[in-house]
Amino acid sequence: MTPTLVRQHPPHTGAVPRVDLRARARDWSEIQERMLVPLYEAVYERLDVGPATRLLGLGCGSGLALLMAASRGAAVTGVDTCADRLALARERLLPDERDARARDDTRIVHGAPAQAARTDAYTVVTAFEPIGCLAGDAERLADLLAEAVPLAGRGAAVVLAGWGPPERCATASVLRVAAKLAEPLRGAGTWRPTDRDDLERVAARAGLRPDGSGRVACPFGYADADSAVRGLKSTGLFDPAVTATDQAQVDKELAEALHPYQRQDGTVWMPNVFRYLVARVP
Predict the structure, then answer these.
(1) How many Å apart are CA 93 and CA 77, to the nearest integer?
(2) Distance CA 116, CA 166 (A)
């Protein structure tokens, strides 16, 4: 299975395929990122995110989840390593750099979580990129948390996200295409089956105390097959397949895998379920 399909970092095995990073970031922002809005809303409602919240978003991408938290009154900081996505996040969250209050309540940080430290501790830390599909994704999240958790206050909520059961995620069948094409690589960044205890293991490794979980329906809906292909490729999950074969082959097989989910009006609809875990800083 996958993340939001969700964006992942390029694989470490083999050559990284040549892509237009700005176009990919725009596809992520305009097509794919919104697929997890129900997850963001469920978490913010459960944690009562509002004016008293100081939120750190790990892997914030182009900032949609941050924007939703800021609209509830939260002071938000986003951190990521993708400069193109962060540029879009700044457009969303800091359209007017002259607004001193906005600069105080909103920060976009390019780099590691440690660079997002503030004088007053964070009350909520989110890692909304779902794990449970790529080899090494749980380990990468654990490494991020090792830097981020010390920035949060005692009792702060740390939210981890992952894919739900494969049988409840239609996108799993599409992701298997990426796994099949990337099979020759057999390394980090290639597909792995989801494990229902992924989130709990990461929380335990980070020294966090589980404090509840939930499941949220997050269907992937696209205007047409082309938008679906662009959105899914913007996640980076198909990069290993491109490295192992070529772009044309991946596009062809991805379009074929999407065919069962294309409706008569041309739209593409894939029901999915995501799981989140709320853990606390001891």
Answers:
(1) 10
(2) 35
